[in-house]
Design brief:
Number of domains: 3
Oligomer: single chain
Distance between the termini: 43 Å
Order of helices and strands: HHHHHHHHHHHHHHHHHHHHHHHHHHHHHH
Number of helices: 30
Radius of gyration: 26 Å
Shape: globular
Structural class: mainly alpha
Number of strands: 0
Length: 688
């Protein structure tokens, strides 16, 4: 293999196949023209406002919702089985879209834009809504729930309906969960007319930040940045033992910088690395598991990360630059954990690296594609010079457009003016298509954000956030009482540990059917107050929930990234999910570490280089122990007792604190000594 061309169209088709958020239905004219025009207009609207000034908050969010919710009914079929059927255009299905979906598009647009239209009078209506306000709020609520069902499935809708039911059943709830209840008019007043419901922070973050970075990632891929990333990954890691698997890790880390999507990473990088891994001898489920686990790192890899990272900006009132810096070390530890297990597996099985003729000439690729790094460099420059994230995205997209148009034109200069014009037209149409696809990719998260607004609105209306926190801390106290005499630690640490374990389990369970962003917001609403009561810094709490929400992408029974990779590898999906979860154990342990040692996040008050370096070293050593135990190999094959001892020793080694780390290393000394002696024995015989 001498090239690393990324087939963008094929990658988009694979994403459509494996990611429910991309399961678009086929269309015929006139629906094709209407949808393409609206998608392009949506991207242009956000591109323009990012560079030349946002509109008034409610107006900006209302226009965004009108586009997003309306387009969902055009792009997503009511029944997903219908999305795979050949489209048929009739008078009741113009363009393959039923008339009731055209009606829902209109209803979504009217209900979304009604609030900005009455904004001048809204101060007089909050708390005393008019019948028309209640009617429009009802329409928008129903539209949001149906749009969420089409894009995300039933789980998030059921959760939202459960919260709505809780709003009415408050007087009959048990114990601490009791509240006075509400009426439908009061509920619509809160969800629709205030900024604490559907028009709240989640939809605002999507409309202000997330959309722009999704668009940047799509356009950057179109101009060739993905091809350059894969070439660099192969140059760095391809020649070492088990090279393709290490290429998957480095490639996914680089792709994660611009995509922020687990499935997008898996299908793009995996389409190249999974066949190579299988050809060199990796078992299909392991090859798929490596790609899936590495790909989940996309949501935690700066600078783009996932949508939840932008929500932190709003919830915590912190600069996005701070979030990026805090994410660096945890993201590194995630990829380091995957790399360690891949390396040990390759050494155990005896897998070779790639030969020179199997790798691209990275120098030639760099000479050809170095210019595609300019938009990413511009994005980073603007992020760290104090600009807002959306202005940084604007300049990143602008530079992508310049590069995307200039490269083909320059390449065609020698062929004459006609060739230059043709090249410019083709490049321009490709960029237009990228704008259309970028908007398409952002529809699902926009619908989910509106649904999450319903959940948050009920929580703020009923005042139950602190009640949930009290319940969680109470259960953690009971658990700490049971184990206090058996573990060598103080009661406060045990209570915190139980709280973290419960939060992590709920995040994983909820992530089985709810996207990462929704899981993050719901769990922050519920868990953040509980962890706050125990003295955990808000940034640490948000990162903990964020990481466990991402982990759900490789946690069976619903592990979307793992299942996408499994299908490409021809592997058993459940076995792939189990393998991916095992490979992601570093990501599962690291959040516990930065809760007890916040220096790992770099940006919190009280940061100490000594504490940071010691904690980082302990994490890396412990992750290495754990990787060796699961791989059954270190310097040489491990005996069963060595695997068990290393696995047990890894936990205190990773735990922050000098005593625990030294205890863990001491526990591993017998294994390390035997491994060194076994490794040196053949060398000694050769010398003699």
């Amino acid at each position: 293999m001498t090239a690393v061309d990324v087939d963008v169209k094929k990658a988009e088709e694979l994403e459509r196949q494996f990611d429910a958020e991309m399961h678009f239905r086929p269309l015929l004219p006139p629906a094709t023209w209407v949808v393409a025009a609206l998608l392009f207009a949506l991207s242009c609207f956000h591109y323009y406002t990012a560079g030349f000034g946002l509109l008034r908050e409610q107006t900006h969010r209302g226009i965004h919702m009108a586009f997003v919710l309306g387009l969902i009914f055009m792009v997503f079929a009511a029944n997903r089985r219908h999305a795979d059927a050949a489209p048929v255009s009739t008078w009741w299905k113009p363009g393959g879209v039923p008339l009731h979906d055209w009606a829902l598009l209109l209803a979504a647009a009217v209900a979304s834009l009604y609030l900005p239209a009455i904004f001048e009078d809204i101060a007089f209506r909050v708390g005393n809504p008019l019948p028309m306000d209640v009617a429009m709020g009802t329409v928008l609520t129903l539209v949001v729930l149906e749009a969420t069902r089409r894009t995300m499935g039933w789980p998030l809708v059921i959760i939202a309906l459960g919260f709505i039911a809780y709003a009415f059943l408050g007087p009959w709830m048990p114990g601490i969960l009791v509240h006075p209840g509400t009426t439908w008019s009061q509920l619509m007043d809160h969800l629709y007319l205030t900024s604490q419901g559907i028009y709240g922070i989640p939809i605002g973050v999507v409309a202000t930040y997330v959309f722009h970075f999704v668009l940047f990632g799509v356009v950057a891929m179109r101009i060739g940045l993905g091809r350059l990333f894969l070439a660099l990954a192969m140059a760095v890691a391809g020649r070492f033992a088990g090279g393709p698997a290490k290429v998957a890790i480095f490639g996914s880390a680089l792709f994660g910088m611009i995509s922020g999507s687990s499935v997008a990473n898996a299908v793009t990088v995996g389409s190249l690395t999974i066949p190579m891994m299988k050809r060199l001898g990796y078992r299909p489920h392991f090859a798929a598991g490596v790609e899936a686990t590495a790909s989940t790192g996309g949501q935690i890899t700066p600078p783009v990360m996932g949508a939840a990272a932008f929500l932190m900006v709003e919830y915590l009132s912190l600069p996005y630059q701070t979030i990026i810096i805090a994410a660096i070390v945890p993201a590194f530890l995630h990829f380091f954990g995957v790399f360690v297990q891949v390396h040990f597996e390759a050494r155990r099985v005896g897998l070779r690296g790639l030969q020179p003729h199997e790798m691209p000439d990275w120098k030639a690729v760099l000479r050809a594609d170095w210019v595609t790094l300019v938009p990413l460099a511009g994005l980073l420059w603007k992020l760290f010079d104090g600009s807002t994230p959306y202005l940084a995205a604007f300049w990143g997209i602008t530079l992508c457009i310049v590069v995307g148009l200039a490269r083909p034109a320059v390449g065609a200069v020698h062929a004459g003016g006609g060739a230059v014009a043709a090249a410019l037209r083709a490049a321009f149409m490709d960029l237009v298509d990228a704008f259309v696809m970028g908007a398409k990719y952002a529809l699902a998260v926009g619908g989910a954000a509106a649904a999450i607004g319903i959940i948050i609105g009920v929580v703020t209306l009923t005042g139950t956030a602190l009640k949930f926190a009290t319940i969680i801390v109470g259960v953690a106290n009971d658990g700490a009482s049971l184990l206090q005499g058996f573990l060598p630690t103080d009661r406060a640490s045990l209570v915190l540990l139980f709280t973290l374990v419960m939060t992590a389990l709920v995040c994983i369970l909820m992530g089985c059917g709810v996207p990462t962003t929704a899981t993050y917001i719901i769990m922050v609403t519920v868990a953040a107050p509980a962890m706050g009561l125990l003295g955990v810094a808000p940034l640490v709490t948000h990162f903990f929930v964020f990481y466990y929400g991402v982990l759900a992408d490789v946690t069976p029974p619903v592990a979307v990234a793992a299942y996408a990779a499994a299908s490409m590898a021809g592997a058993d999906p459940f076995r792939t999910g189990n393998t991916a979860f095992r490979l992601a154990l570093a990501k599962a342990l690291v959040p516990f570490v930065f809760v007890f040692s916040p220096s790992l996040l770099l940006v919190l008050p009280g940061f100490s280089w000594g504490d940071f370096l010691f904690t980082l070293a302990g994490c890396m050593i412990g992750i290495t122990f754990l990787g060796a135990a699961f791989s059954r190999y270190m310097l040489m094959p491990l005996a069963p007792w060595e695997c068990w001892l290393l696995g047990i020793a890894a936990l205190p080694t990773i735990a922050p604190g000098v005593p625990s780390t030294l205890v863990g290393i001491a526990m591993a000394v017998p294994v390390l000594a035997r491994q060194v002696m076994a490794w040196r024995a053949p060398l000694s015989r050769q010398v003699s």
